[in-house]
Specification:
Blueprint: H1 4-31, H2 50-84, H3 87-95, H4 99-109, H5 116-133, H6 143-151, H7 153-159, H8 165-173, H9 179-202, H10 207-216, H11 220-228, H12 233-247, H13 256-261
């Protein structure tokens, strides 16, 4: 099972990586001096050094993808926070101002048992994004965090297609991410977000949590209007369609109480609903 939040995250990242790879393929022809601007393309493009232009453009594409990755992570975490955290933890999370602290909050409270290096790579994404966006930023990992990455060198290489984490750290310090860096960090982010998503689904065992889940997807306004309809075949048909469209995947997981409550006009009342 996957939430809509995860599906959107995966689709967005999949599109961005495909676009990045497509750009890199095209730039390989630019670098070899084989590319010519089509007459129909209404832009000005001249280059004295095709190879240099290709390298600069590839660097820009990789850095842009890095920003997109970080923003996609932030968006996912914001989308599921109310479903995954208790009220007390949600208050603590919401009080955090920096994205790196919010990501680390998930590290500590959602998957504390996970391999250390994977959690640190999530923090590395945030710091690297800040260095790309803010030219004078000195955002960085702690000495202990760098140490864990280096000590996990062999495991990282095994899990991430021979990624040399020491080279990645050097690229980070020089603020010059490679295609290999972004590809590996995307893969790690997907691993972690999938882990979070499993915890989101595990929490969907009460009417109140499911209510927060519906709200997190932005479906509450539509759902409320359906519940206001006069009882009868039309209402039943529309609600069944709504349920099938958005929650059929969870049908075997939801309790009977949740299934009944999703069709009850009191669903959004305070408390645990019907």
């Amino acid at each position: 099972m996957e939430t809509n939040h995860l599906k959107k995250f995966l689709n967005n990242l999949g599109d961005s990586i495909h676009s990045l790879n497509t750009i890199c393929v095209g730039l390989s022809y630019v670098g070899e001096g084989l590319a010519k601007k089509p007459e129909k393309l209404s832009i000005t493009w001249n280059t004295i050094d095709p190879l240099l232009s290709a390298k600069k453009s590839r660097r820009f594409a990789v850095r842009s993808t890095f920003i997109f990755l970080a923003e996609s992570i932030y968006h996912y975490l914001e989308s599921v926070k109310s479903v995954i955290f208790s009220e007390d933890l949600l208050l603590k999370y919401s009080a955090l101002q920096e994205n790196v602290r919010r990501v680390n909050f998930f590290n500590e409270h959602v998957y504390p048992q996970e391999i250390g290096y994977r959690k640190i790579l999530m923090l590395l994404i945030v710091h690297w994004r800040n260095r790309i966006v803010h030219f004078e930023s000195q955002a960085t990992l702690t000495k202990d965090e760098f140490k864990i990455l280096v000590e996990s060198k062999n495991l990282i290489s095994e899990n991430h297609s021979d990624l040399d984490i020491e080279k990645t750290i050097k690229n980070f310090e020089e603020n010059s991410p490679s295609l290999k860096d972004i590809s590996s960090l995307v893969a790690n982010a997907i691993y972690i977000i999938r882990l979070i998503d499993k915890n989101v689904i595990k929490n969907l065992t009460s009417v109140e949590r499911v209510k927060l889940f519906v709200i997190s997807m932005g479906l509450d306004s539509e759902h409320k209007e359906l519940l206001k309809l006069e009882d009868g075949e039309t209402k039943e048909r529309k609600i069944n369609y709504f349920y099938k469209l958005h929650f059929q995947e969870f049908d075997d997981y939801f309790s009977d109480q949740i299934k009944i409550s999703l069709r009850d006009k009191r669903f959004y009342d305070s408390g645990d609903g019907a």
